[in-house]
Amino acid sequence: MKVPSSTALNYVRGRAQMAMTCQVRITRRNRPLGYDEETLIYTPTPDPEVLYEGPARIWELSGGPNVVVGDLDIQHQTTQLSIPWNTEAVISQYDEVLVIDCETDAQMVGKRYEVQTVAKAGQLRATRRFEVSGVN
């Protein structure tokens, strides 16, 4: 198998980054091992660790099987998030994503997501890619 040149990889990754029209902040909270014994309430730490802040692309993919809940037929849709390939941060499941700016859709600003899965692949990918679910 022939490995693409660094010029080709830089071109593809640069083109992918051009589609990243939103600015996001990805954070991780320090999650305690349990709940407060007296109140049985989980209280997250007030200051999450900022893992990444920068450009991102957020888009939805329709498809997959429909889910039947009672008498309702619900179409499955997943939301994807991409950040630049050369990002040093290691993003994990349950990390939180906040959209802080979006030049193509002002209604995206303030939306929050939670990372559900992290796409694993070799060095030929154009972006770091995640499946996320909306929090608000």
What layout of secondary structure does this protein have?
Elements: H1 6-18, E1 22-28, E2 49-62, E3 67-69, E4 72-74, E5 77-84, E6 96-102, E7 112-118, E8 127-134
Brief sketch in words of this structure:
This protein has 136 residues and is mainly beta. It has one helix spanning 6-18; strands at 22-28, 49-62, 67-69, 72-74, 77-84, 96-102, 112-118, 127-134.
Please characterize this protein's 3D structure:
The protein is mainly beta. The protein has a single domain (6-134), classed as Thrombin, subunit H. It contains one helix and eight strands. It has one helix spanning 6-18; strands spanning 22-28, 49-62, 67-69, 72-74, 77-84, 96-102, 112-118, 127-134. Strand 7 and strand 8 (127-134) form a beta hairpin. The longest helix is centred in the first third of the chain and has 13 residues, at 6-18. It is globular. The relative contact order is 0.24. The mean pLDDT is 84.
Q: Percentage of helical residues?
A: under 10%
Classify the secondary structure makeup into a structural class: mainly beta
Strand content: 35-45%
Low-confidence stretches: none
CATH topology: Thrombin, subunit H
Number of helices: 1
Q: Domains counted in the coordinates: how many?
A: 1
Count all strands and give the number: 8
Task: Identify the strand order in the major beta sheet.
Answer: 1-2-5-8-7-6
